[in-house]
């Protein structure tokens, strides 16, 4: 009994320490990514060239971020299986583990190599299908960009395996820091080229940055003890079968999820020039705080979920889930408030220069505000998906994601065509779909484990009430900031952020929320 309690306390402390470490590293990486977006916005604005690049980037992004990124299917499958084969994070992989690693690596390499060749050969047809409503000039330029970035498809799954193995061995820094390399390469190349009128340099820099990203991981894996010896040891390989059973539906789920984005791309192509660029920038800004938050808590929690599921400790899973999601909810609500109050001022302050004009600021702000409503269901969806993966179930998330495709197309048609909401319709429909997925993932989890939703959502209700009161108070305070100079925008952002943070925390203390009390105690101690 005492040993169990001590283990739980040790795991809790470990998760918190890992969360802070990952948060700091992710913040550094996201900041560099933010600078990259600023540089891209400065040189390319929200124009046909930037639209072509972001249309072409969507499929390579599917490979390296959605499939191979932290939290993607390859990373998740690797963590779920290898964390049960490695007794302790500092253990060297034995011959069996190394052989399994090489089987997984070899099969993934062949699959993604074929995908990359297919993408290069049929680039024009693929772009013509995705943006069929776009102009011939847009489609041809996007196809050229896609050919240049097709090698990124080869990197996707492999980098996910590397990420997963590093996480299993509690090497949290590299997986969360390496995206910085891609951003730095892009910044350097397009700054040196300077007058890239077609976006060719931008596409080339993206491919080079992705290659540097995977090369950064390799030395650490060799140091841990992993050696590359290609093999196809698939027959009668129980653990590879486990990887396949988890991975295949997860890949389908992620790919199916991307169909929703392709639907968005189609509808954006019938809107004004720069519409898709505005949606992409809104998503990038959205992912800056939300990505840090989700990555910081779920990366260290996922191996714990997998271990507890393997040991059959259901009550411990409930405890960790409620603690993790509760903290995510507590931090997510102020993010929504600040986006709604400060989106246009913040985007203007950061991006409005060079080719990125005031019209682009309005378009991105509008898209971001409607996307902000998805933050709460987003963090819940990503959290509960990790629990499904811990139980080696990726089929349920796949089925739910598939069922939402038709709804996505219907919502886009209703909001964009019938209600004439334009860019806002794209991101509002995304918020509805995220809520749909989160709701049904939560409902179907009852087949595996009865999570304590009552306590979780009772606390969420209190936090939401505090958030609504804070939003109203912040809105009245914004009325006092009437000037539009850069200095006053900066003062407004700092003032409103501090006020809302303090006011929201105090309200939660009054409502007797433990997360607020702990935050306040930490601030007082420091």
Shape: globular
Into how many domains do the coordinates divide?
A: 2
Unreliable residue runs: 1-13
- Give the tally of β-strands: 0
First-residue to last-residue Cα separation: 34 Å
The largest β sheet comes out as: none
* Count of helical stretches: 21
Question: What is the radius of gyration?
Answer: 23 Å
Average pLDDT, all residues: 84
Written as H for each helix and E for each strand, in order along the chain, the element string is HHHHHHHHHHHHHHHHHHHHH
Helix content: over 70%
Q: Which structural category do the helix and sheet elements fall into?
A: mainly alpha
Tell me the strand percentage band. Answer: under 5%
What can be said about this structure in brief?
The protein is mostly helical and 526 residues long. It has helices at 2-44, 48-67, 73-82, 95-121, 123-130, 136-149, 152-168, 173-177, 179-193, 200-224, 238-268, 275-311, 314-351, 358-371, 375-390, 395-403, 405-418, 423-444, 453-478, 486-510, 514-525.
Task: Describe this protein's structure.
There is one protein chain. With 526 residues, the protein is mainly α. Helices cover 81% and strands 0% of the residues. α12 (275-311) runs parallel beside α15 and α13 (314-351) runs antiparallel to α15 (375-390). The longest helix is centred in the N-terminal third of the chain and has 43 residues, at 2-44.
């Amino acid at each position: 009994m005492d040993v169990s309690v001590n283990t739980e306390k040790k795991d809790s402390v470990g998760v918190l320490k890992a969360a802070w470490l990952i948060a700091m590293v992710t913040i550094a990486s996201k900041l560099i990514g933010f600078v990259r977006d600023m540089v891209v916005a400065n040189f390319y604005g929200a124009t046909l060239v930037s639209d072509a690049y972001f249309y072409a980037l969507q499929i390579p992004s599917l490979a390296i971020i959605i499939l191979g990124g932290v939290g993607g299917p390859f990373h998740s499958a690797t963590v779920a299986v290898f964390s049960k084969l490695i007794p302790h994070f500092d253990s060297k992989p034995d011959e069996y583990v190394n052989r399994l690693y090489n089987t997984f690596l070899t099969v993934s390499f062949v699959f993604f190599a074929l995908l990359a060749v297919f993408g290069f050969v049929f680039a024009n047809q693929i772009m013509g299908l995705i943006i069929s409503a776009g102009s011939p000039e847009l489609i041809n330029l996007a196809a050229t960009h896609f050919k240049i970035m097709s090698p990124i498809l080869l990197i996707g799954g492999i980098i996910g395996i590397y990420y997963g193995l590093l996480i299993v061995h509690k090497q949290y820094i590299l997986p969360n820091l390496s995206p910085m390399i891609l951003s730095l390469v892009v910044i350097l190349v397009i700054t040196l080229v300077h007058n890239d009128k077609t976006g060719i340099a931008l596409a080339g820099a993206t491919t080079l940055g992705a290659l540097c990203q995977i090369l950064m991981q390799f030395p650490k894996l060799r140091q841990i003890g992993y050696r590359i010896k290609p093999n196809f040891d698939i027959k009668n390989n129980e653990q590879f079968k486990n990887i396949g059973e988890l991975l295949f539906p997860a890949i389908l789920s992620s790919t199916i999820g991307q169909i929703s984005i392709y639907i968005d791309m189609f509808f954006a192509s019938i809107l004004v020039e720069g519409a898709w660029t505005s949606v992409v920038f809104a998503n990038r800004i959205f992912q800056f705080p939300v990505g840090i938050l989700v990555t910081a808590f779920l990366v260290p929690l996922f191996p714990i979920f997998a271990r507890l599921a393997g040991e059959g400790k259901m009550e411990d899973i409930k405890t960790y889930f409620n603690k993790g999601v509760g903290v995510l909810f507590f931090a997510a609500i102020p993010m929504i408030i600040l986006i709604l109050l400060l989106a246009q001022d913040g985007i203007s302050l950061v991006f409005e220069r060079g080719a990125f004009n005031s019209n682009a600021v309005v378009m991105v702000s509008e898209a971001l505000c409607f996307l902000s409503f998805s933050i709460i269901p987003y963090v819940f969806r990503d959290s509960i998906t990790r629990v499904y993966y811990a139980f080696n179930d990726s089929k349920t998330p796949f089925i739910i994601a598939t069922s939402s495709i038709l709804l996505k197309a219907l919502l886009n048609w209703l909001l964009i065509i019938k209600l004439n909401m334009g860019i806002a319709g794209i991101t509002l429909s995304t918020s509805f779909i995220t809520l749909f997925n989160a709701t049904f993932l939560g409902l179907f989890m009852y087949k595996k484990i009865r999570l304590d939703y009552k306590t979780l959502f009772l606390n969420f209700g209190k936090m939401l009430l505090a958030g609504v009161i804070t939003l109203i108070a912040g809105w009245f305070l914004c009325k006092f900031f009437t000037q539009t100079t850069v200095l006053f925008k900066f003062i407004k952002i700092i003032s409103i952020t501090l006020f809302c943070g303090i006011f929201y925390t105090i309200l939660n203390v009054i409502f007797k929320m433990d997360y607020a009390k702990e935050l306040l105690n930490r601030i007082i101690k420091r």
